[in-house]
Amino acid sequence: MSNVIPPGSRFATELAALADGDGVVVVAAGPDIGDDWEAIAHELGEAFEATQAAVRAGHPVVYVVAGEDLLGQRGSPASMVACGLLSAARTAAIEGARASIAVNVVAAFADAEPVDVAAWVGRLWASHGVSGELVRLGTGHLGKALP
Q1: How many structural domains is the chain composed of?
Q2: Per-residue model confidence as pLDDT tens digits over 99-110
Q3: Which of 89, 91, 106, 119 has its CA 20 to 30 A from that of 48?
Q4: Closest C-alpha among 120, 39, 106, 38 to residue 69
Q5: Does residue 143 sit within a domain?
């Protein structure tokens, strides 16, 4: 099993410290994906393969996406990947429920601290009974009000 963390990700250092953990983390590329349909399909394919390997091994998965991308604020391609990963997490959570395999999403807004993102990934890996959930970090989405 291997984590999927794009080069230059602002979370790379903190998430690398979790490399020996019992889970898989997949970080979305965000706007760096560009407008290339092949790149979007490749990124989602990588996430699928990493998730499939983790589930087969009985390990939890956490997808890390930009909160702005879930809201479509940084372009359609980045939004397609972020929303696709959220949907995948919820579907995988349903499929993995019997085997108690958790798949969750951390949506980190621009003001979220990388150390907090890594802490939540670790918490979600260690939690039992939490699956298919979205944890938002940062002030980009407070309740239903958008700043």
Answers
A1: 1
A2: 888 999 999 999
A3: 119
A4: 106
A5: no
